TrEMBL record:
One GO location term (cellular component): chloroplast
Originating species: Aegilops tauschii subsp. strangulata (Goatgrass)
Record GO terms (molecular function): ATP binding; ATP hydrolysis activity
SUPFAM superfamilies xrefs: P-loop containing nucleoside triphosphate hydrolases
UniProt cross-references to CDD domains, sorted A to Z: AAA
Protein name: ATPase AAA-type core domain-containing protein
Length: 274
């Protein structure tokens, strides 16, 4: 007779199923190179994050299928399209004469992002390549009063606009409610900025655009509204909380195409507008 002896640990190990394979994570990244290189200022801003000059600006898109797709918000030659120079001129009219001339003489004028005027501080013009000092003379109350007198009324969110343009003027107030700072941001309508999203827009699913300030979220949303109304013959109604999408004034900006727009008199009561 023969005796077979097995260690208990060996039996336990043999009875256990093999461990499952490690999970595989797939990350999809889609990038589009525009037909023409972006202006130099945009290449400068993003060159540090890539091995060569950047050719597109990216947003992060989250949709119902839980995919994340970078959205190219490329600002091509549309900045110099017909009508934009006139709209930009209306924004620059808010500045004192000396500051306006300094901005107009800047080589990156078509790519201007915003002008910052804070009480007691030198004014700045911000371009994708960096900040540009407009004057060593600090901003005074008179400078701020002259600028605010040329724009519409500021709402509860301390924002105002210029009629039939996409520019946004944001105010900073002190404890007494006086305006002590202005940020004059340039608004642009860029046709084709949402081309990468055509299949998602056509499917009719929900979209959430995520990105830091100044990367083109509002620009893409405006183009999506135009695309739905003009290209897909949808009935589009925009609930425009701060008149950022359709522009200031009662006549919407042509950038939204045939889409219609609901203005919101009070942000806290927006649900009643809908």
């Amino acid at each position: 007779s023969a005796t077979l002896s097995l260690h208990p640990l060996a039996l336990t190990a043999a009875a256990m199923p093999p461990p499952p394979p490690p999970p595989v994570h797939l990350r999809l990244r889609v990038s589009i190179t525009p037909p023409h290189p972006l202006p130099l200022p945009y290449s400068r801003r993003f060159s540090s994050a890539t091995s060569g000059p950047a050719t597109a600006r990216h947003l992060s898109l989250r949709c119902g299928s839980r995919r994340r797709v970078p959205v190219c918000a490329a600002r091509s030659e549309a900045a110099g399209a017909e009508g934009f120079d006139e709209e930009l001129g209306r924004l620059l009219e808010l500045l004192p004469g000396e500051l306006r001339r300094r901005v107009e003489d800047h080589p990156e004028l078509p790519a201007l992002v915003e002008v910052v005027m804070d009480l007691g501080r030198p004014p700045l013009a911000r371009f994708p390549s960096g900040d540009f000092l407009l004057s060593h003379r600090p901003i005074s109350f008179d400078d701020l009063r002259q600028a605010t007198a040329k724009v519409g009324d500021f709402g509860g969110d301390n924002r105002a606009g210029i009629s039939r343009t996409l520019h946004r003027i944001s105010a900073i107030r002190n404890r007494q409610g006086d305006i002590v700072g202005l940020t004059c941001r340039v608004g642009r309508a860029v046709p084709g900025s949402a081309n990468l999203l055509q299949d998602l827009v056509k499917d009719g699913g929900s979209l959430l655009l995520i990105g830091p300030p100044g990367v083109g979220k509002t620009t893409v949303i405006r183009e999506i509204a135009r695309m739905l109304a003009d290209d897909y013959d949808k009935r589009v109604m925009i609930v425009d909380t701060s008149n950022e999408i359709g522009g200031d004034g009662d006549i919407p900006h042509p950038g939204i195409g045939n889409a219609r727009r609901l203005q919101v008199p009070n942000q806290e009561m927006q649900h009643k507008v809908c």
